[in-house]
Amino acid sequence: MDIQNVLVIGAGTMGHGIAHVAAASGCKAFLYDVDADAVQRGLAKVKANLQKGVDRGKVTQEAMDAALANLAAAPADLAEAGAGMDLVVEAVPERMELKQAIFSTLGAACPAHAILATNTSSLPVTEIASHSGRPERVIGMHFFNPVHLLKLLEIVRTEQTSDEVVAATQAIGERFGKTCVVVKDSPGFATSRLGLALGLEAIRMVEEGVASAQDIDTALELGYRHPMGPLKLTDLVGLDVRLGIAEHLANVLDDRRFAPPQLLRDMVAAGKLGKKSGQGFYDWS
Q1: pTM of the prediction?
Q2: Looking at the structure, do residues 26 and 68 belong to the same domain, yes or no?
Q3: Which of these, 96, 108, 163, 168, is most buried using a 10 Å CB contact count?
Q4: pLDDT for 152-170, tens place per residue?
């Protein structure tokens, strides 16, 4: 497939990052959100991140200008936004009903050749695809935050995803500058399942007073060459996001291995969500 037009649904942390790499790859990238102000904030963040790249000598001014020329706000109507797209990537909050409603609209509005992708980090892609009317064209494209810097793309195929769609998704992922891994649609996929297991155990260690968050992270960073400790990573991902994934995996896989620690529940209830709230296991203010 020759993918040229990409629609990203959701202008938050993940959405604007996906739009960034799509535009930088030479695709025409359109950013959609039910909140028009969120779209403008997302576009501004892409510009700011590109400018940081220029300031640090990582991005040329010409590349920045070309990426911004490829980036635009999508029409306010989702069905209209989906018309004429080759690839749609949904990056809205992790609520199954919301994603299914979006895919129902996309299935009716997008061209027959379009790939419909979800950026979900843990929800079953098969259940999302079931509302699209074309499950063979639906796939998971799980990006990592910050999208414009991290190189991994986890591609999640269902039993119904066609080989053509898998191949095309790998190709566009590489064009976005990513290294792709392909996993089957199973709870937590590969990355969320493994990352969460480590993160939850680290939270239990803080809860039990084994060591401070900083010392636990330093132990993993220096002892096992992890680029970032599990608690700092939890702050970056969002404690609320980690809690939602833990509750889901505890329900569908194993309530002993993935049961959320009480400390995680208490911190989320107190609004300590990590970097995005300014406070988590670290002070980000």
Answers
A1: 0.88
A2: yes
A3: 168
A4: 999 999 999 999 999 999 9
